[in-house]
TrEMBL record:
One of its GO terms (molecular function) is acyltransferase activity, transferring groups other than amino-acyl groups. Signal peptide: none annotated. The lineage of its organism: Bacteria, Bacillati, Actinomycetota, Actinomycetes, Kitasatosporales. Residues 119-258 form the N-acetyltransferase domain. This is N-acetyltransferase domain-containing protein. InterPro entries: Acyl_CoA_acyltransferase, GNAT_acetyltra_YdfB-like, GNAT_dom.
Amino acid sequence: MIKLSPAQLPDLLPWFLGGPPGMTALAEHALAPGAGDWWADRAVAPRTVVVACAGHLLLRGDPTALPPLALAPFAAHHVQAPARFLPLLSSAFDLLVPWERMTYVHRVSVPSPRPLHGVTVRRLALGDETALAALGPESAWIQASWGSPSGLAASGHGWAAFAKDRVLAVACTYFRGTTYEDVACVTVPDHRRQRLALACVTALCQDIAARGHTPSWTCSRDNRPSRLAAWTAGFRLEHEHVHYLTGQPARHVAGLTV
């Protein structure tokens, strides 16, 4: 596949419009420099387009235009693609696990809970990257779509609950689109059930609405805590779909003897 240049991308964005809110926002978010990559089977008049961002992969177009080898770099990715791509994905990887997903849209205004004594909820800014990095590897996914802790801190699209210089909870726009902004949040284990994430999400949703956009929320069907958090924050179910977790490249794709 060929990595596309920024100048080529706006003309290809309509390939991904009309999908569920989270997926459409992912494609738009990946247009930003350093956020993700766009690929195609050829630079001019592509037949298949691939968008990769933060371990997520979108496929559109004609699956017969790609050999299985072209997808080998995308092991251990969450793939959203039309059903016609399943034979290609099954040939490219030794494992393909379906994962039911639920997408919510913010419908109900929720009052922000009062922070605990000694806790401040505010927008992330330059200088907060050290505190974000201190969250540790289990929470590093929260900044993946912005490329780094500094990318998230400088984005203007994150809110956090601080106790002095320590981050206790974070909510951010994970994928930013022109209509929807898909929201993600995380709380450090020893401060859960204190409504800190809810305070951050509420502030973030107000920000998103002020930009003229609509907050969305995407999670796994079996992630009950995330579904409950979405409902509590005023999100309501909009769409259900299936995406697939890829394994390692199949042995014949990797060039090994079967």
